[in-house]
Structure formats: C-alpha cells, structure tokens
Amino acid sequence: MPGVPEQRGRKRKITDDQLCKMDDLLKSEGFEARSLSWQAMAWECGITGLSDRTISRAMGKLYIARKRGERYCNDCIQRREEKDQHDKEIKKVHAWAAVGYNFKSDLVFYEIESNKNSKMTQQAYIGQILEPHVKRWLDRGDYFTLEEDGDSGHGPGKGKNIVKTWKEQHHLQYFFNCHSSPDLAPIENCWQPSKKYHASKA
Q1: In 110-122, which positions are buried (b, 16+ CB within 10 angstroms) versus exposed (e)?
Q2: What torsion do the CA atoms of 70, 72, 74, 78 make, to the nearest 10 degrees?
Q3: Fold classification of 94-201 (topology level)
C-alpha cells in the first residue's frame, strides 16, 4: 500500500548510508582505498560487525577498479617499471631435494651459469645433482627408484642424451611422473611451505 514501509524479506545487514560511505572512500582515496580488504575498507568508514562476504555482496558493482573516464587516471594506473626492475635485481634461488619412505635428502642449492632463469640443464643435473648426491646413494647400495618430473634437464624423451647415458652406466632405476602433482609427486607438498617462508623473509 502507498505510504507503508516494505515489510517483506530479510532485514538488510548493511544500510544505504554505509554503502555510500564506502563508495565515497573509493572515490576520494583512489587506488589506496581499492587496495584495502573489504573489512579494512569498512573499518576506515567506521563500520564494524560485518563479514567480508556481506560487504562484498552489498557493494556489488559499486566496487569498480576503473570507472568511465578514468582510463588514464593516475590513481587507476599501476606502474610496473620499478617493480620489474626490482624483480630483475633479486637473485632467484633454486633447489633440489628428494624424499622417500623414512628418508629425505639434503636440500641442494644449484646455479646455472649458462642462463639467467636458472633453468636446469642436463650438464648441471649431472654435475650438481647426480654425481655428488645420487651416485653416493648408489655406491653405498641403497635400494631406491628415483622419481622425476619431465623437466628437460632430467633427460626425458626417446632419444639418447647425456643424462640417460649416465643413468644407464650407473644402473640407476628411475621413472618420470606427473609434475606438480601432490599425490603422484610427494615432494611437491614440501616446496610450498618453504616458498612461503622465503617469500615472507624477502
């Protein structure tokens, strides 16, 4: 009926006034506000007691990274030159390790002088991994099968290569498995915590 407030449906958890406050914050603070989490944005507006999901659903299309006419607005452009240069200057660390039943190897850090991205080469795999580490296990009579992913440095493929020749000469039992699979390649479960730790320390 005209003049009677709507009574149907569930009462809204967030008011129009609160929505307007957060929208005004986005417009006035630009990129700085857009980088906030939903909770942080609400807190900046004096709004408490609401979940991230409630705020994000209520904000809906109000939370826009770039509005009409803002294509070249400085607040909406992320400049990457400094970050890209910073990434180039950071020395990337690459490591190899093996895990097995009741066994774990040392963590072996390696460098590849022939390329900047430290992509494992077959020469480096023999010289820095197989000879100093895997061969030691073979020499002392350990019984194992080396599981590897299909990295080109590990010597996959049907044709002959120096890694495959090394494995045959040293009677190394091995097989290639699906890479990046936590079920088929158990060591993948070990890398994520160490990556997170080193990223937080960088």
Answers
A1: eebeeeeebebbb
A2: 100
A3: Nucleotidyltransferase; domain 5 (3.30.420)
pLDDT digits (tens, 9 = 90+) for 49-76: 888 788 877 776 444 445 555 555 555 5
Q: Which of 30-39, 101-110, 137-146 has the lowest mean pLDDT?
A: 30-39
Separation CA 113–CA 131 (nearest Å): 18
User: DSSP code of 134?
Assistant: I
Please give the mean pLDDT across all residues of the chain. Answer: 76
Instruction: Find the mean pLDDT for residues 16-36.
Output: 74
Residues 109, 96: Cα–Cα separation, whole Å: 6
Please give the Cα distance from 165 to 158 (Å, whole number).
Answer: 12
Most confident of 64-78, 128-142, 173-187: 128-142
Q: What is the pTM of this model?
A: 0.51
- CB 158, CB 168: distance < 8 Å: no
What kind and span of H or E run contains 199? helix 188-201
Domain ranges, ordered by start, for the chain: 16-76, 94-201
